[in-house]
């Protein structure tokens, strides 16, 4: 192959092979070492989060259990069950008890599990009812009471979650006196749980479901945690807890983002990118050293031999010192292609001019603004004159685009650009488009008052174009908002700071109103 005859090319190929080998080793480390470790850390983090969820659920259960314990050990409850305070339900079991949503239903039963009283809020209409039996006004609680009575035999003083007929947290406690172990009955509290339940603010929402154990399946009283990936971005976390309903278990499912795994892979990729850039820089340095030490002398000798061959018999001096001190390859190419380089320079100058213009509107772009603004500030302040900057934003332009379509949106921007070009015609004025619907005008020798006046004039001129804007909540025609900032010789600002002040002024005026002008230094 001809290109292998060049020492430089051979050297580059050798370095490229080494680079590929190193990157292959790094990829092997990622897939064989890093990813398994990241997956292990992800599962550990998911287990920690699952424990936090379990603790939150247990905290809710303990609160309910504390409430039912207080009611069960209250002297008034004991006296009611022994017939000494028949008015106890009317005076103490009131809507205020249920206002904090700690419980939705209270059932008081005698030692034979017969209902002595029932009270709670109707889950359909939210009304509070209190009755001696689940009938009449309390008819809504009949199914709940029947199901809970079937579960009471398997429900000890530990709160559990029932699954039938609705998901509910249930806690029961014997009605006793503190100085006696005799139970006058039981009091049971139930808190209804929605199908999408968030046990605590800031935690994930749990989707509740249930499974029925098959005959012979082992009923585990301890909560279980299951973690499995759904896709590359999500894990499914399932908490399996014992149920108050016989032969049922409660499943609580939520989804976790795999941000930790992605962050770890991203960090490794950044490390790989840094290593790649370092290796490329090292390769370039080695190539430069190889060229300076090996290729330069060989090239000079080759040139000298060529000159000798083309001028046989003539006395030739040694190559001049400047030719020995540097490589002449680029200089030789410049002499041979002088005309071509001139044409390329002209084309590059034309392309450079195009890169400073916005393709849609023909105005200057952000690159031109960033290059020209510091020069304008320096020159104008040197003459002891201020510089004003106006930042313009089209009001509700997204609504305009969504309603009329992007072609009409582009035409609207062109109209705005033409309006600005007609207003600002001084050679020193700089009109640019810096974003989708944002324009910046730089006005040398303009103080704040004049800049505010001209900005208001621009708003008026834009409104006078009468471009319909049906979805706009501000005006039936397209309007603009403007923020003004000033850099004076006494308080000079950098170009970046001046743009930032104008942007802040624009943000404030858009926040308070539209089709208006504002500045950060206005009273």
From TrEMBL:
Keyword Transmembrane helix appears in the UniProt entry: yes
PROSITE patterns in the cross-refs: GGDEF, HAMP
All residue ranges annotated as the GGDEF domain in the record: 385-522
Entries under InterPro entries matching the protein: CHASE4 (IPR007892), Diguanylate_Cyclase (IPR050469), GGDEF_dom (IPR000160), HAMP_dom (IPR003660), Nucleotide_cyclase (IPR029787), Rev_trsase/Diguanyl_cyclase (IPR043128)
Coiled-coil parts of chain: 327-354
EC number(s) given by UniProt: 2.7.7.65
CDD domains attached to this UniProt entry: GGDEF
Biological process annotations from GO: cell adhesion involved in single-species biofilm formation; negative regulation of bacterial-type flagellum-dependent cell motility; signal transduction
Record GO terms (molecular function): diguanylate cyclase activity
Annotated transmembrane regions: 12-30, 265-290
Catalytic activity: 2 GTP = 3',3'-c-di-GMP + 2 diphosphate
Keywords: Coiled coil, Membrane, Transmembrane, Transmembrane helix
Cofactor: Mg(2+)
Entry-linked Pfam families: CHASE4 (PF05228), GGDEF (PF00990)
Domain HAMP: 292-349
GO cellular component, one term: plasma membrane
Keyword Membrane: yes
PANTHER family: DIGUANYLATE CYCLASE DGCM-RELATED (PTHR45138:SF9), REGULATORY COMPONENTS OF SENSORY TRANSDUCTION SYSTEM (PTHR45138)
Name this polypeptide is given: diguanylate cyclase
Source species of the chain: Kushneria avicenniae
Highest classification ranks of the organism: Bacteria, Pseudomonadati, Pseudomonadota, Gammaproteobacteria, Oceanospirillales
């Amino acid at each position: 192959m001809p290109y292998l005859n060049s020492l430089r090319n051979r050297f580059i190929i050798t370095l490229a092979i080494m680079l590929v080998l190193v990157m292959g080793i790094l990829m092997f480390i990622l897939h064989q070492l890093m990813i398994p470790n990241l997956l292990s850390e992800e599962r550990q983090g998911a287990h920690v989060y699952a424990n936090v969820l379990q603790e939150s659920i247990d905290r809710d259960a303990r609160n309910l259990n504390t409430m039912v314990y207080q009611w069960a050990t209250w002297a008034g409850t004991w006296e009611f069950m022994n017939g000494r305070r028949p008015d106890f339900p009317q005076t103490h079991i009131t809507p205020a008890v249920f206002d904090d949503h700690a419980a939705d239903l209270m059932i008081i039963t005698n030692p034979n599990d017969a209902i002595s009283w029932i009270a709670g809020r109707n889950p359909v209409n939210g009304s509070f009812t209190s009755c001696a039996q689940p009938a009449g006004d309390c008819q809504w609680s009949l199914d709940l009471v029947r199901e809970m009575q079937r579960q009471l035999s398997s429900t000890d003083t530990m709160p559990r979650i029932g699954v039938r007929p609705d998901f509910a947290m249930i806690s029961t406690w014997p009605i006793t006196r503190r100085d006696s172990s005799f139970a006058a009955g039981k009091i049971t509290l139930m808190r209804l749980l929605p199908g999408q339940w968030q046990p605590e603010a800031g935690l994930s929402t749990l989707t509740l479901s249930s499974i029925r154990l098959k005959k012979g399946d082992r009923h585990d009283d301890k909560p279980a945690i299951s973690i499995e990936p759904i896709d590359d971005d999500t894990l499914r976390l399932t908490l399996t807890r014992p149920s108050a309903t016989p032969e049922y278990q409660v499943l609580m499912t939520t989804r976790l983002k795999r941000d930790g795994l992605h962050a770890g892979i991203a960090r490794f990729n950044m490390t790989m990118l840094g290593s790649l850039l370092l290796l490329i820089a090292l390769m370039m340095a080695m190539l430069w050293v190889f060229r300076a030490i090996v290729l330069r002398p060989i090239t000079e000798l080759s040139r000298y031999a060529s000159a000798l061959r083309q001028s046989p018999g003539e006395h030739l001096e040694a190559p001049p010192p400047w030719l020995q001190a540097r490589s002449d390859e680029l200089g030789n190419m410049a002499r041979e292609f002088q005309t071509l380089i001139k044409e390329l320079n002209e084309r590059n100058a034309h392309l450079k001019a195009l890169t400073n213009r916005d393709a849609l509107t023909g105005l200057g772009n952000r690159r031109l603004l960033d290059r020209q603004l510091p020069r304008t500030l320096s020159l104008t302040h040197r003459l002891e004159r201020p510089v004003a900057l106006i930042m313009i934003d089209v009001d509700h332009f997204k609504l305009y685009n969504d309603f009329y379509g992007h072609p009409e949106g582009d035409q609207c921007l062109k109209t705005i650009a033409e309006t600005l070009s007609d207003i600002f015609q001084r050679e020193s004025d700089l009109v640019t488009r810096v974003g989708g619907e944002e324009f910046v005008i730089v006005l040398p020798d303009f103080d704040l008052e004049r800049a505010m006046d001209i900005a208001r004039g621009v708003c008026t001129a834009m409104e006078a174009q009468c471009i319909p804007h049906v979805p706009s909540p501000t005006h039936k025609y397209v309007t603009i908002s403007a923020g003004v900032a000033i850099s004076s010789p006494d308080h000079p600002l950098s170009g970046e700071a001046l743009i930032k002040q104008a942007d802040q002024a624009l943000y404030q005026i858009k926040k308070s109103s539209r089709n208006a002008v504002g500045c950060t230094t206005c009273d």
